[in-house]
């Protein structure tokens, strides 16, 4: 079965496919603000039905799941494609060069909120199914699609949904396209994600702000209470001092270490792309820290007056937000308990609130299906790919590897500088078209090789 037909179809339908993407992009779907989410789900359902995908909305305690399937044979290989149709808020609006919800092409890139994260990559999957059907008349494997509307608010109801629908979602592999490609422009095959725990600390002083002179040394400043607590949580080298924080971390395998050592690394280029000229580490250290080690990050600190000019006050309240990226087998529940115990010991008056979490996940590099997907990606892009044990960020990948117990791979289609979550989010037109093609190649490669794939139990 020649895939040349696929490439020709994509080329001929470029404008048509872009307009379909633009239709989805114009529909707001800001999950954290509950703006347009259900309308977007209905729109996406209609698009999928038109292609020939049996599609329905499945309710959750929050926003609905758009579920679709094409079932060839219950005994055939089943590929489950995951993505999300919700997007981040567009603010700050004044930093956008064009309207955030009106897709605009500039210099070969589509600019719009959600184009890279994740509507452009999601539509590449959907349109790949259309392209493959039109090229060959049928899909040679079973395909299930799960598109959620809450990824941007920590996938609050996805785990429960998967737990309650194991039979419906039964599959042999989960395939996700999210996040950016490698900074070199090479295609990625990622075998896992870091988890996350997001917390908020609140310290309170007086009932209202006080004059910093008249009440100085009398009224306590809650900002210092949080700062003093932070000093007990981390040493000068960045090591977390919370008791048991590093318990249960699984050491990388020898194969994973070798994969990390082979990853391409250009320190100067990465420094320029992330806007940090102080980057100073070798490639192995860079990737080990990015994929195999947890983080302990201050995401925001608010207290007192931060406006223009001066206002001499002792603030009445201080709020700190922190996110911790976790690695296998760190569990957010366990880390949160240890975090709270530490706060209770050192600053019992500070309130701790849990804002969100996600478990880490990793599929073994030794799994045979990893080789099948890698071959497909390599053949599609006609270049060497980069195999990485984990991405630095977080996705709800654990619902597949932990709850369903099946392997999962992430193959990003967006450009490295997609600016997701930022003003002027973008995705290259060619990245979008290449994503459609790549998904077709993955479907085709699996159909040729699935009988040789041993469905192994996913390790970590």
From TrEMBL:
Residue ranges of domain Peptidase M20 dimerisation in the record: 192-349
Domain of life (superkingdom): Bacteria
Keyword Mitochondrion listed: no
Keyword annotations from UniProtKB, A to Z: Hydrolase, Metal-binding, Protease
Pfam families, sorted: M20_dimer, Peptidase_M20
Protein name: M20/M25/M40 family metallo-hydrolase
Lineage per the UniProt record: Bacteria, Bacillati, Bacillota, Bacilli, Bacillales
